[in-house]
Amino acid sequence: MKRIGLIGNGIWGKKILESLSRIGVDTVVFDLFSKEVELSVLYSKLINNIDEFLSIDVDGYIVASSTSSHTEILHALAPLGKPVFVEKPLTNLFNDISILKSYNLKKVFMMHIWKYHPGVQMLADFAKNGQLGQLLGVKSRRTNWTSPRTDTNSLWNLGIHDLSICESILGEIPKRKMVISEKHNGIIRGATVLMGKNPYYSFEVSNRYPEKNRDIRLFFTDGVATLKDEKVDYISVYRGDDHSNLKSLSENRIAFDNTPPLDIELNEFINYLKGGSKPMCSLEEGFRLIEHLFEIESLANE
After folding, report:
1. The whole model's pTM is what?
2. d(Cα 241, Cα 251) in Å, to the nearest integer?
3. Cα-trace Rg, the chain
4. DSSP 8-state code for residue 103
5. Residue of 93, 297, 295, 92 lying closest to 183 (CA atoms)
6. Angle, CA of 126, 117 and 38, to the nearest 5°
7. Rounded to an integer, what distance in angstroms lies between the CA atom of residue 71 and that of residue 174?
8. Mind listing the pLDDT tens digit for each residue in 119-177?
9. Which element (helix H / strand E) includes 268?
């Protein structure tokens, strides 16, 4: 049995802990403020003292603390030389990029969960195989009401996912063409971003929708392929061109593996600790995506 040191017992920390428990991983949790770990989790120990936590021998670490704390935490973990899996985004502070690069981190990998989503991977296959003709563009939407994260705005909390999805489907992140943002007291609470052309990629993020939306749509010359929600286990395909009659359209659902993406990425990290292949998302990818996000935020602030 492998032992993991989990840093952070917040919303995502608890989900990660539950997943590690299902996998059968012994987990030691560090969190400054938590007083207990869910009793349903079989393999866990909660520690509030960082020195005590770092003194415990583990096979690897998972960082699920607030984004603004990642740089300080990676600085503490760097001398230990153990593999580290970090929740996105790597940081939300521009000056931290050069600081993090100076640490010369060798075994740090990113948890860009949507790259592990079987539905996103199926959409990427549609984009490549030409079954629905030429890909014209992609639209994704990530909206809900408010956010439990207080150290990042909506663009950083939500938009980082859209960039990883964009890269998965298009193989790259196109040049930014337009950014429109909604600000409240100087803080971005919503944004619409348009990138590239032929195909384009457009995404909307917002903490101002009473309803939660997590959908991705690919528009082809001969049809549309849609992932309607992160919890469905199928892609909806509608065949038809720009002249098709609505009455002639029908939904064809193509099922995919419904294993939760979180379980998939954590299994990949645990297998790496056992001598398997490196996790899909490298530290370099983490730097690349936040550099794109800084550029988008800069356009939003013009």
Report:
1. 0.93
2. 14
3. 20
4. T
5. 297
6. 170
7. 28
8. 999 999 999 999 999 999 999 999 999 887 788 899 999 999 999 999 999 999 999 99
9. helix 261-273
147: amino acid identity, one letter: S
Task: Tell whether the torsion through CA atoms of 87, 95, 162 and 209 is positive or negative.
Answer: positive
Question: Residue 175 CB: number of other CB atoms within 10 A?
Answer: 9
Predicted pLDDT of residue 199: 97
Buried residues in 153-170 as b, exposed as e (16+ CB within 10 A): bbbbbbbbbbbbbbbbbb
**Token pair 């740090």 is at which residue?**
108
The pLDDT of residue 54 is 96
pLDDT the model gives residue 175: 94
Structure-block tokens of residue 235: 């892609």
Instruction: Write out the two tokens for 103.
Output: 């640490």
| Region of residue 196 (left: phi > 0; alpha: psi -120 to 50; beta: else) | left
Mean pLDDT for the stretch of residues 286-299: 96
Say how many C-beta atoms besides its own lie within 10 A of residue 271's C-beta: 13
Report DSSP letters for 28-95, one per residue. Answer: EEE-SS-----TT-SSEEEE--HHHHHHS--SEEEE-S-GGGHHHHHHHHGGG---EEEESPS-S-TT
The total of other beta-carbon atoms located within 10 Å of residue 15's CB is 13
Which residues, including other chains, have CB under 8 Å from residue 87's CB and lie 6 or more apart?
Answer: 8, 12, 62, 63, 64, 65, 67, 111
Unique residue bearing structure tokens 């998972």 = 62
- Per-residue pLDDT, 50: 93
- The DSSP element (H or E) to which 264 belongs, if any, is helix 261-273
CB atoms within 10 A of CB 191: 24
What does the alpha-carbon distance between residue 25 and residue 64 come to, in Å, rounded to a whole number?
16
What's the farthest any 2 CA atoms get from each other in the chain? 66
pLDDT, tens digit, for every residue of 28-39? Answer: 999 988 777 665
